[in-house]
Structures are given as C-alpha cells and as structure tokens.
Design brief:
10% helix; ten-stranded antiparallel beta barrel; Lipocalin; 176 residues; mainly beta; 55% strand; globular
Length: 176
C-alpha cells in the first residue's frame, strides 16, 4: 500500500508539471464590468463603461469600451466613442493578440509586449493600424492598481515624433 501511495504522489507530481497555465491568466484580473472616468482625447472629461468577458470556452476574451465625452467649447455636443474587440492567443507565435474595432473606423491589431509587461502592468503595441496614417503606431497600457481598480493609457506616435499620451482612464470594478 505504501508503494502505491508513493507511486500515486510521483504520478501526480509529473502530471501537474505538464499542466499549463491559461495563456490569459495574466489578463484574468480584467474579467468583469468596469465603470470610471477619463481625461484627454481632446476633451477634459469622460465617463466610461468597459466589459471583459471570456467567451467560447475561454478561447477568447471579448471586450467593449464605451466612452461619453463631456461637451466642450469646441464640441458643444460632446462625443461618443465605442470600441469592441477580441483577445486571442496565437499559438504559433506564443503571443497574445488584440483586434480592436473603433467607432471612428480605426482597426488596431496589438500584441502583448512580454518584455515590458508585469503581473500588474500590461503593455500592448500595435502591429497594424487600418485607416491611420502610414508609419503611425499606438500603445495601450493597462495597469492593475488593485483588484477593484485599473488605469488605462493610450499613446499615439506619429511619424517622426515621440509618443504622446492621448488619454488616461481610471476604472473601478462593478460589483453585482
């Protein structure tokens, strides 16, 4: 009986060594619904809702970000921005990829930059931007401030210029 117990423990140790963590494990803190405020993007203030949900047996993460910008002297009606997207895992490249579709007609394809990302900071850099100026790029960062708060920053680089932060959002998890 003692030999059987030792063999069972050894077997479980070997099998657990082969178990892989989900490629989305480092993004799982995003799961759920979020609300908050933002600044930048040419306006002083915005209200934001966001949702990140694993779908299709956790093969993808679907997200929606909705921002309503306060009216300004230059834009008395205010603005409304929506982006939707999917996060996938490219097994061949061993890379997390985001495909984001914006209401302004931009389509961004980002990859997670592992060398710059940590457990509390995710850094995504565009590989491709459709309908943007040639040579431009974007970076999107998501920082986990706590289990209930994240901060996102969106940077744009125009050809021949340094990256500039276009907007910062602070979001709090919505409890149901």
């Amino acid at each position: 009986m003692k030999k059987l117990t030792i063999l069972a423990v050894l077997f479980l140790s070997v099998v657990s060594g082969f178990a892989q963590e989900s490629p989305f494990e480092k993004l799982s803190f995003l799961y759920g619904n979020w609300e908050g405020t933002g600044s930048g993007f040419g306006n002083n203030q915005s209200t934001i809702t966001a949702s990140y949900q694993p779908i299709m047996d956790s093969t993808y993460i679907e997200f929606v970000n909705d921002s309503k910008f306060d009216p300004t002297a230059q834009n008395p009606a205010g603005e409304h921005h929506t982006d939707k997207g999917m996060i996938s895992y490219d097994k061949a490249r061993k890379q997390i990829v985001i495909r984001q579709f914006n209401s302004e007609g931009y389509i961004n394809q980002y990859v997670l930059v592992n060398s710059l990302s940590t457990a509390n900071l995710l850094v995504f850099q565009t590989e491709i931007i459709e309908n943007f100026m040639p040579g431009g790029s974007a970076k999107w960062t998501i920082e986990k401030k706590s289990d209930e708060e994240i901060e996102t920053n969106f940077y744009v680089t125009f050809p021949g210029r340094d990256a500039a932060c276009f907007g910062t959002n602070t979001l709090h998890k919505v409890q149901h």
